[in-house]
Structure formats: structure tokens, C-alpha cells
Write a structure and sequence with these properties.
This protein has helices at 2-42, 51-57, 60-69, 166-182, 205-215, 250-267, 303-315, 332-340, 373-376, 383-391, 414-421, 430-450; strands spanning 74-75, 108-110, 119-123, 134-138, 148-159, 190-195, 198-200, 225-226, 229-230, 233-241, 287-293, 320-326, 344-348, 364-369, 398-400. The chain is an alpha/beta fold and 462 residues long. The strands form 3 sheets. Strands 1, 2, 3, 4, 5, 6, 7 and 10 form an 8-stranded mixed β-sheet that branches.
């Protein structure tokens, strides 16, 4: 028994020593592993690993902390592209490439595979120069310190101009309508608006009504401070548009403006119904001619005389009815109603012409320019030719009051001369107006007869 006890003691001693050796080996291995992991984390090699391998190497919490600390915010407005902001590379979020689906406008959507599943984060304040505002992309689990996450879908719109000009406003709205139409009529939780990189917290009344008509009472977001300090805001989902209709195909543009038109009419409770024939019994199609006037700059010097010229020509055509409207006196819905019941819009160049989008497709536009515009205005004078093409209208010609000789203070300086003529009033040319009105009325009558007087309004897509 003593021998057995002695052998048991020896065996126990051997096992204890073996256990101690095993513990020492295990401790050395664990220490080596810790040192190995530490070297990986502090080594530049770590940052070349892909996302999945990095997450396997270290805990998700440490991974998030390291990524959050390495987020770089870049200027929203990149002044390197200031001279080419309207073509080629945009200066708004310049480091991020657009997604382009054939026939649709270019866009950015976060998160998506194109941007590695990252969220868009913006650090900005109202009215601050865009070069002082900034943006970054961040993993959802590694947002910047103090960041506020805004849930749901945000529409982020950038325009090179502003959201008070009707033409630029509707051009900025259109791509969002197009995107929503093909995404099951998705609506945003908020609007984020930027003009030249600076945050905008309001729009013109006309555009705001059009936004509500298409997407409902969606707020325009302001960015507040936390304890007096500006903090970044990140978006659970963000759709960014920065090229207006951009590369959208002509047919797609027509569909988008048809939707904008339809939603505006529905919002205003306007039901166009079928077009009526001439009540005189002649059987001629009804032609509705609207002379949309404006006051102040680029208004007619003698609006009564101009009205009489077109009224007399209208009376010579069976089925022609004429209406004279003052754009400044009309509410948004009144403008929608007047243009809904218009086949021919005649108006001086100006913001009120944006209302052409509420006419039926294939309607006609007649535009008038004061002296100096054709010679000095540049490409911008064709803005409503472009809008007519985008919305499916006919804008075959315009009238430019002839400038025989420059009477500006410094005729050798085109820029100063342009400022002199830019907001001038219009005269009129009765001979030209009579012939022009007769030609347009004949064209519209023929087109309406060929279309068999069918009204082209269908139900809204959304």
C-alpha cells in the first residue's frame, strides 16, 4: 500500500508539473497572440485588409472605433472645379461618382454597393459658404463622434442657382419625381437643399407648392447644434441629385413632366375633362389662346395694343377663344388652372413662362424678348425653349425686338451693355404679330384636327 501511495504521489507530482508546463505554454501562446493582434492593429497593413477580414481580426466595437476616428470630411463645394461647375465634374461632393441608369438622370444613393454600403454624413449650417461645409461617407456602425442619425429616406438636392427661380426650381425637382416613379412612388421624410454648396432652408412659394403637390408636406430640414456646437448629421438613406434632368432621355422627361402636371392638377382639384368643340356649331376644334402678362421688367410698354392685335386674329378663327391673365395676380392653383385650359401660351420672357408645364403635351409657346437680348444675353435666353422640349411643348420660334444701335452708356463693353438692356420693356411689331398669330393658329387647328380632339391627360403614376 505504501508503494502504491508513493507511486500515486509521484504520478500526481508528474501531472502537476505537466499541468504547470501546459499553463506556461498556453500563457506564452496567448501572450504571443495578443502581441500579434496588437501589431496588426497598429500596422498600416491592417487598413489594406478588406472589411470582412478586418471584422474577423478584431471585435466589431474596436473596428467601429478605429473607423470612426479615421473618417475624413471633405468640402461640400470644391473650388478646384469652380470654373467648370456647370459641365463635366460638379464641384458639389466632387469626390463621389454618379450612378447612371440608361434613360434616367444621374444620381447618388447611400447606402449602396457603389459606395461600399456607407452612409452619407454632412456637417453644415445655414447660410455658410459651401467651402466651409463638409461631407463624409461612414459605415453605419462607425458614424462620426457626436453625429445625429436621421432615419428614413432623405432627398438631397443641389442646384448651381437657387430655389426661388421657377425654372431652376422645377429643373431640380424633376429628377426626384422620375426616380420616385420607378421606385414604387417612394416619398422622402425630409428635403435637404443646397445652392452652390450652401444650405437652403426655404424655396419660393410656387416651387414649394409644386413640391407639396408631388410629395406631400415634406419638411425642408434645418441643421441644429448640440450644446452650441455644430455636429454632423448622417442619413439612414439619402438620394442626391446634382445634375437636374441631366442624361434623362427625351421620352422619360416627357413622362416625368406629365406626372408633375398631373399631380399639380390633382392637388388643385382641377379636372380638365374632354375638350369641347366650338359652341358656334362650326365643328371646329376649340383653340384656347392665353396672353400671360407681367409687370415691370420685360413687360409690354403698351399691353392693351398687344392684346388687341391677338384678339382680332383669334376672332378670325372659328373655335378660338382668348384670355388675358396677369401672372402676379394669380395664386399657384390659379396659374395651374389657367394653363390647364390653354393651347397657345403667348408671354414675354420671364419666370411666369415656367407655367407652360401645366399645359397639355403638344401645346404651343410664343415668347417675346426686349431689345438687346438676342445680341447680348447668351445661351440663357433659350431656357424656355429647353423647358418646352423637356415637357413636350412646341416652341418653334420667338420674337426679339430689334436692336439697331446700342444706346447703353458704354457700348464697347458688352457686359455693361447687357445689364442696361436686361430688364427693359418690350415694344411691339403689329405686322409681325399678326402674321405670327395667324401661322400659329393655323398650325394648332391642323394639329388638333389630326389628333381627333383627344385629350391627352391620364391618371397620375403615383
Amino acid at each position: 500500500m505504501a508503494t502504491t501511495a508513493e507511486e500515486d504521489l509521484k504520478e500526481a507530482t508528474r501531472l502537476k508539473r505537466s499541468w504547470k508546463k501546459s499553463n506556461i505554454v498556453t500563457s506564452v501562446l496567448l501572450a504571443s497572440l495578443v502581441i500579434f493582434l496588437f501589431h496588426i492593429l497598429v500596422s498600416p497593413f491592417y487598413f489594406s485588409l478588406n472589411g470582412s477580414l478586418a471584422k474577423e481580426v478584431m471585435s466589431s466595437k474596436l473596428h467601429a472605433e478605429l473607423n470612426a476616428s479615421n473618417i475624413t470630411f471633405l468640402p461640400l463645394k470644391d473650388i478646384r472645379f469652380a470654373k467648370t461647375a456647370m459641365d463635366g465634374n460638379t464641384w458639389f461632393m466632387s469626390s463621389v461618382n454618379d450612378t447612371y441608369d440608361p434613360n434616367y438622370a444621374e444620381y447618388l444613393f447611400f447606402p449602396s454597393e457603389n459606395y461600399e454600403g456607407k452612409l452619407l454624413c454632412i456637417n453644415t449650417s445655414t447660410g455658410v459658404d459651401g467651402t466651409k461645409n463638409s461631407y463624409a461617407l461612414a459605415w453605419p456602425e462607425a458614424l462620426p463622434d457626436s453625429a445625429i442619425l436621421l432615419k428614413g429616406l432623405s432627398f438631397v438636392s443641389y442646384t448651381y442657382y437657387d430655389f426661388y427661380n421657377l425654372w431652376h426650381g422645377v429643373s431640380a425637382l424633376a429628377p426626384f419625381v422620375g426616380w420616385s416613379m420607378r421606385k414604387g412612388c417612394l416619398k422622402p421624410k425630409r428635403w435637404i437643399l443646397f445652392a452652390k454648396g450652401s444650405l437652403q432652408t426655404a424655396t419660393g412659394a410656387w416651387l414649394r407648392q409644386l413640391m407639396v403637390a408631388n410629395f406631400g408636406q415634406v419638411p425642408i430640414r434645418r441643421f441644429g447644434k448640440r450644446n452650441g456646437v455644430q455636429v454632423p448629421y448622417c442619413f439612414e438613406q439619402a438620394l442626391v441629385m446634382r445634375h437636374d434632368v441631366g442624361k434623362m432621355s427625351r421620352e422619360r422627361r416627357w413622362d416625368v413632366f406629365q406626372e408633375i402636371r398631373c399631380k399639380a392638377r390633382s392637388f388643385c382639384g382641377i379636372k380638365p375633362g374632354k375638350k369641347m368643340k366650338d359652341l358656334s356649331g362650326s365643328g371646329a376644334p376649340l383653340i384656347r389662346f392665353t396672353l400671360l402678362m407681367r409687370r415691370g421688367s420685360r413687360s409690354f410698354k403698351d399691353p392693351q395694343a398687344v392684346s388687341e392685335i391677338f384678339r382680332k386674329e383669334c376672332e378670325k378663327f372659328d373655335g378660338c377663344v382668348m384670355k388675358v391673365a396677369q401672372s402676379e395676380d394669380l395664386s399657384f392653383c390659379q396659374q395651374v388652372k389657367v394653363l390647364t385650359h390653354t393651347d397657345i401660351l403667348a408671354s414675354p420672357h420671364g419666370a411666369q413662362m415656367t407655367n407652360m408645364i401645366f399645359m397639355d403635351r403638344n401645346s404651343t409657346v410664343m415668347e417675346f424678348f426686349p431689345k438687346g437680348w438676342r445680341e447680348l444675353a447668351g445661351a440663357g435666353q433659350y431656357a424656355f425653349h429647353w423647358l418646352a422640349e423637356q415637357s413636350g411643348m412646341n416652341h418653334p420660334d420667338a420674337w426679339w425686338e430689334k436692336l439697331d444701335k446700342k444706346h447703353c452708356p458704354h457700348p464697347e463693353n458688352d457686359h455693361e451693355c447687357w445689364n442696361f438692356y436686361k430688364n427693359g420693356q418690350l415694344g411691339h411689331n403689329e405686322t409681325f404679330f399678326v402674321e405670327w398669330a395667324r401661322t400659329v393658329l393655323n398650325q394648332v387647328r391642323l394639329r388638333k384636327q389630326q389628333l381627333d380632339n383627344v385629350h391627352n391627360i391620364s391618371s397620375c403614376s403615383c
